Every structure is written in C-alpha cells, then in structure tokens.
Amino acid sequence: MSYRRSIRSLGIEAPERAYYFEYEEEPPNGEQLQLDTLFSGLSAGTELTFLKNTNPFFHSRFDADRGAFICGEPALRYPVPFLGYMEVARISRSQAPDFTEGDIVATTYGHKSGHIANPDSELLVKLPDSLEPILGIFVAQMGPIAANGILHAGAETGGQDIARLGQGIEGRPVIVMGAGTVGLMTALFARHCDAADIIVADPSPFRRAKAEAMGFEAMSEEQLSEHAKRSWHHGGNDRGADFVFQTRAHSKSLDTALKALRPQGTVIDLAFYQDGAKALRLGEEFHHNALNIRCAQINRVPRGLSHRWDRRRLARETIVMLQREGSLILEHMITDIIPFDDGAKFLNDLSSRRRDFIQVVFKADV
Fold first, then answer.
1. Which residues pair with 107 in a beta bridge?
2. Cβ–Cβ < 8 Å for 107, 117
3. pLDDT in tens, 74-90
C-alpha cells in the first residue's frame, strides 16, 4: 500500500499575493512521523513582512559565521512557498518509539495540510489531554518567545542562577508594550510568574479592551510614562517600572518604554523593527537614567543558560501557563478561526485593509 499524498501549502506568490501550491509528499520512512494538520496559527507580524516585501531577507542574507547581514545578496525570492510556525497536528502514521498514532502534537512546520516530521531534528511536543488542541498553536514557538522574554528578565537580575521562570519579575512592577499575541502571552506569563503589577499599553482601543477583559490594566502609550512614574515610587528620584517588555514593531514604542523605566531599568525587547528605529532617542532617558535594552530573540536564551533552558523546556512552561489561562485565551485572544482553504483570501484581505484581530487560526478540514 502506498501512503504518498498531496500536500497543500499556503505561501506568498508575489508581493501582496498569497496563494496555495501543491506538492507530492513521500511516505514516512524509518522513525519519521506522518502528521495531519488540525490547526495552524498566523504570526501576523512576521508573515506580513513576506506579503509586503519588507522582510530583510529579500534584500540581504545573514552570514551566520560572522553574525552579520550582507546587503545586496538576497537570501529570499518570490515565490515563498512556506509560511508559519504555529502548528497542531495528529499523528497518522508512526514507527517512532515515543510517538503513537493518534497523538496530538505541537510543532513548527508551516501552514500545510500535512507534514513528514523527523523526531530527531524537529521539536514535537505531545499535548496533554487536559489541553484544548487549538491552544497547542502557542506551544512550540509563540509561547516560548514570550517565556524567553521573561527568562531574559531573570538573567538581568540573577545572572545564570535561574532555577525557575519568573525569578526576575516576581514581586516587581512590569509593563508590556503591545496587546497583540506576543504582548498578551508575555503579560500572561508575567501574571503566572507573580509580577506585582502589570500594565499593558497599546494604541488600539480594541486590543486594550481585550487586555482588560483578561484582567490586566490597560492604557494608551501616551498615558504610560506619567502613570508609571506616578504609581511606582521607590524612594527619592527612583520612579518607574523595573522591566518593560517591548513587543510592538515601532521604534516610538521602544522610546516610550525607555521613558517608563526606573533608573537602571531594562527594556526586554522582543520586537522586529522592519523600518529601522527613527523615533528612538538615545540621548535622553536612555543616557541620563543609565537604562538597558536587552534583545530577547527566540533562537537565543540568555548567555550561559542554554544547557538548562532550551526550547523544549520553554514549551513545557508554556503548557503549564496555558492550562491555567487557557479559557481566557480561547475567549479573548483567538479572535478569528478561518478554514484553511480560505487562508490565502484572508491574507490578501488583511494586507489591503485594516481590521481588528489578535490571534488568527487556520482550521483544517479533518
């Protein structure tokens, strides 16, 4: 019997034009797994850079040996056949000892109808029966992105001695810039890790309302710095937040984050600035208050912690948080569930007109 099958993938054919393409997938061999997609989450901030031709890889390539981008040598060209990294799938065929047919797993293979996975080289996280499968879209990548931000805050205060997630923010006031998926996931982790006060700042009334419905204090960015300096007085001239988690891809938001910090405070920056940082001013609060900006990028945990805090551990921390906060996420964060076959139309519409959303999920017809 042949298990060869046709796979549909959602990609970008050309700027402003999402499309589907199909290819024939060979059957699994050895200890490979055959996966049938159940849900695939849209990472709008990242994926729209491919749709709008703003991703830096269209104009340069990253030299990993030197850790530098080489301009004028594009690493990426259209069409882009694969997008996404937030998948939940059911195992339909397995000869691997640790995976059983019927298991539900979280992984990161893109918006495809199915996938052949190699357990030795791909992150595959089995979901507990107690977790709604759709919440698994956050487990393998998006949750770890937010958890890694929390981990970086711990490293700022505890160095390499981080035994549990949240050590750096426990009992401290924090701000989250942005009420999109990354921002709200970060806020949920901050609450899960017992931060003393949490403020979520976002210019969108829709997103602020969602943050408030999830139990957070929310405000506009214009209100933020004055509120932080007035509310969090640590004595003398020491006012403001200990940490600001910056998740908005706007340099003005980063500048506002710096204004809200106490002296020697830290911005944990999870954002991806496609247009540079023209609104950032480093001669003002950054310099005079001796502030810090720490990039928390998903491929790098804090220096010296990789042996203890890998992606799998961050995924496990995500599952624990989701089991606690899952009902709020289902009600308020997952704003759109779109049939997989309508994904290209949705992306094209999203590019051409503004709409209110937080987390979009493509649901497979299974």
1. 87
2. yes
3. 999 999 999 999 999 99
Encoded amino acid at 275, one letter: D
Count, in order, helices (H) and strands (E) of the chain: 9, 17
**Single-letter code of the amino acid located at 285:** E
Judge contact between 115 and 23, C-beta under 8 A: no
Residue 297 DSSP label: -
Backbone phi and psi for residue 33, each to the nearest 5 degrees, phi listed first? -115, 140
Enter the DSSP assignment of 353. Answer: S
Is residue 298 over pLDDT 90? no
What stretches of 293-342 show up as alpha helix (H) in DSSP? 311-328
Map residue 33 onto helix, strand or coil: strand
Comparing CA positions, the residue from 169, 231, 223 lying closest to residue 195 is 169
The identity of residue 190, as a single letter, is: A
Q: Using alpha carbons, list the distances in angstroms from residue 225 to 166, 329, 335.
A: 24, 28, 29
pLDDT digits (tens, 9 = 90+) for 176-232: 999 999 999 999 999 999 999 999 999 999 999 999 999 999 999 999 999 999 999
Secondary structure element (H or E) that encloses residue 23, with its range: strand 17-25
pTM comes to 0.95
DSSP helix, strand, coil percent of the chain (3-state; round to 5): 30, 30, 40
